[in-house]
Structures are given as C-alpha cells and as structure tokens.
Design goal:
Layout lengths: L1 H30 L5 H158 L6 H39 L2 H22 L11 E5 L2 E5 L1 H27 L10 H5 L11 H20 L6 E4 L2 E4 L1 H7 L2 E3 L3
Antiparallel strand pairs: 1-2, 1-5, 3-4
Helix pairs in contact: 1-2, 4-5, 5-7
C-alpha cells in the first residue's frame, strides 16, 4: 500500500509539472503576440509532444504499476500456491506418516494377537498333555488299585476258604470230642445211677480219677490252644483286623490270669450229683457247683462274644463269630472240676454266639451293659441252661 501511495504522488507531480509548464508558456505567448505563427505552432507542437510524452510516461508508469501489481499478485498467488502445496505436502506427509504408524500398529496388534494365539495354543496343548497324563496316571492307579483289590479279595477268599477248612476240621474234631464226651458222660451217668445207692470209698476214688482226667484234658487242650493262638495272631495281622487282634490279646491275658488262679486252688471235696439238666433231649447230672459253673460258662461266653462282635464291627469285617479266638478256645473260667471240658465249652459258646450278635449289631437283644461287663439276661440264660434239684 505504501508503494502504491508513493507511485501516485510521483505521477501527480509529473502531471502538475507538465500543467504548470504549459500554463507558463501560454502566458508568455499571450504576452508576446508578436511572435510569429510558426513559433506558436511550434510551441503547440512542443506542448503536444510534451503532453504526449507526459501521457506516455504516465501510461508507462501505469503499465509498470499494473505489471508490478500483476507480478505482485502472481507472486502472491505463487506463494499462496506454494504455501498450499507445502501444506498439502505436509498433510500428505502427516497422513502417510499416520498411515505408516497405523500400519505398524496394525502389524504390532496382529503380531501380538498371533503371539497370544500361539501362547493360548501352547497353553491348551500343555493343559491337554497334562490332562492326558493325569488321566493316564489315574487310569494306571485305578488299574493298580483294581488289581490290588482283586488280589486282596483273592487273598481274603483264600484265607476264608482256609479258615472254613480249618473251622470244618475243628468242628469235626469237636463233634468227635463231644460224641466221646457224651459217651463217657452217659457211661458215667449210668455208672452213677447204677451205683448211686452203694457209694463208698471206691466211688470217691473214681471221682478223684475223673477230676484228674479233666485236669489233664484241659492242660493238653490249653497247650494246643496256645499253639493255635500264634497262628490265629498271624492271620489277624495279615488280615489287618486290628481291633480283633486287640480282643484276642485281651482274652489271652485274662486266660493267663485265670490259669494262675486255678494253679493256686484245688478242690478235693466230693459232692454228690443232685442236679439234673436237659440238653438235646437227654438228661445230665451234676452237683451244685457244676450247675453254677455251667451258668457261669454262659455268662462268660456272652461277655466275650459281645467284645469279639464289637471288634469285628469296628474292623468292618463280615459277621463270623466262629472266626473269633474266644469262640474257638471257649475255656475261660473252666477249672476242671465237676463238669467235663466239652460240656463247659458247649455252654460257653452258646453264650458267646448271642453276645457276638449283640456286639456286632450294637444292640441289647440278649443282654445289657453293667459295671464294665456285658451280662446276659436272666430269661435268656434260663432258656439256655436250667438245672433242677432232685432227690432220690
């Protein structure tokens, strides 16, 4: 704007100078009317030339100004175009840079996604492998447990078969002993009945001989039972019947103390058989102390049977009273006087069987608990053994 203003002032000064020059010449011409026409024309031509020259100068200046203005406008446009091109270039560069960053970010995300996918697949594969290993291990363990269980069941079955065979042998032997005892008892009862009215010193001597035979019999039986107790103990340990093993040890200890008591006491007095009882449809005879001992056999048997049944229940063992050592021995409390060994065992086992059932099923069908012992009910005892006093 300042440049245009200066140019305008220059152009005005030139025009003013030309106008002043023309005015001065006109005044001089009028003052000098005497100049010739030729000078006047020349002056006019000169004036015209000057005016033309001034006009050309003005036009040139105007053209220059226009060219300059046009150049300036072109320069402005060129600069504006350059500026826009630069902005476009910068925008393109920024856009390309953003696209490059976006592509790199997309590639990074893709790589991260691939990495995570690979990690996930590796983890899944690892988990699947571990699961397969655990499943295979569980299958191996289950198979090993199944085989061990089969072996254990087979061992139990063999042991049970062996125990059954042993029990059958024992029962056969017991039956033979009972038959012999019955035969001997019948013989003795017959002898006693035939000679009842003729008792004398010979009868007492026979009674003492019978007492000695009973003592020898119980001693032999207990020696055999001690040998069998060791085998019984090994079987219980192999079968892992901990509570039944403890019961057996308790029974053996009580049996040992009872034997010491019997060794320190002897009854040499003769008592007449004045009690009669029925077993299996036959009548048998004994005295007051014999009847008391048989009742005691039932009571002791019930107490020992209850403890044996409770031990089998705590060991989760099958119901089997014949597998208990107390039932097999059946001699606790026997002193060898007045009644035969087999007779005492019979009534001991009758009480034992009922006590075992109550202990195994944890009930009180045949007896009750009293002062640390398990006692058979009176009516049950009466149903098992009942002796009647008689006089001839």
């Amino acid at each position: 704007m300042k440049r245009k203003f200066i140019k305008g002032l220059t152009f005005s000064a030139i025009v003013g100078s030309a106008l002043l020059l023309g005015t001065g010449e006109t005044v001089n011409a009028q003052r000098d009317n005497r100049r010739p026409e030729r000078d006047q024309q020349k002056t006019e031509r000169d004036d015209s030339k000057q005016q033309e020259e001034s006009r050309r100068v003005w036009q040139n200046q105007r053209r220059q100004e226009q060219d300059q203005s046009r150049n300036q406008e072109q320069e402005r446009r060129r600069q504006e175009q350059q500026r826009r091109q630069e902005e476009q270039r910068q925008n393109d560069q920024r856009r390309n840079e953003q696209q490059r960053r976006d592509q790199m970010e997309a590639q990074r995300r893709e790589q991260e996604s691939q990495r995570r996918e690979e990690v996930r697949r590796q983890q899944e594969w690892q988990n699947q492998r571990q699961n397969d290993q655990r499943r295979n291990e569980q299958q191996r363990q289950q198979e090993a447990q199944r085989r061990a269980e089969q072996q254990r069941q087979a061992e139990i079955e063999r042991n049970r078969q062996r125990d059954n065979d042993r029990n059958n042998d024992w029962r056969n032997q017991q039956k033979n002993r009972e038959r012999n005892d019955d035969r001997n008892r019948n013989n003795r009862n017959n002898d006693w009945q035939n000679n009842r009215n003729n008792r004398n010193d010979r009868s007492r001597e026979q009674w003492r001989e019978a007492q000695n035979r009973r003592i020898e019999q119980i001693n032999r039986a207990r020696a055999e039972q001690q040998r069998r107790a060791l085998q019984w103990q090994r079987d219980l340990e192999r079968q892992r019947r901990i509570n039944q093993y403890r019961y057996q040890q308790r029974y053996l200890e009580r049996l040992r103390r009872d034997q010491i008591r019997l060794q320190q006491w002897r009854d040499q007095q003769y008592w007449e058989n004045n009690y009669r009882y029925n077993r299996g449809g036959s009548y048998y005879y004994t005295n007051q102390y014999g009847a008391q001992m048989l009742r005691q056999a039932v009571e002791y048997g019930y107490d020992e049977g209850y403890r044996a049944g409770l031990a089998d229940r705590e060991d989760n063992w099958d119901y089997d009273y014949q597998s208990a050592y107390g039932y097999d021995d059946a001699s606790y409390g026997y002193d060898g006087y007045y009644v035969d060994y087999g007779e005492y065992q019979y009534y001991f086992r009758e009480g034992f069987r009922r006590g075992y059932e109550d202990g195994y099923y944890s009930r009180s069908r045949y007896g009750r608990y009293n002062n640390g012992n398990y006692s058979i009910l009176g009516n049950i005892l009466q149903g098992i053994f009942s002796a009647i006093l008689f006089n001839d």
